Fold this protein.
Amino acid sequence: MYDKSLIIEILIQILHASKTVEQRFKIVDSIDYFMDTPEGLEKLDGICMQLIAIGESLKNIDKITNKTLLEKYPQVDWKGAKGIRDIISHHYFDLDAEEIYFVCDTKLDTLIKTIEKILEDLK
């Protein structure tokens, strides 16, 4: 068995980071915003840092729970959520802003709701 209080702490950090991405993404109306304005590039940088933190934290949860917790919530592509951390970290200069936009636009809400559900289930 794993330390549930530690998992809850990590999940709260993931939830906070996810909501930070959500807040930063609100003003992004297109992929061009990221690439065509200095403010957009700053938003992209900030969002990417949070996505790295989320991915790393999800990997830690898998390590601590021996990959038994996240698999109970298949509504999220956990492999993709963890993998985006590697893509951003290792290929930053080749970063595809379109992919970051897609993730924020289509995947973030499900991640937030699922993390909230996991927290509810653990408490």
Summary: The two ends are 16 Å apart (CA to CA). The chain has six helices and no strands. The mean pLDDT is 95.
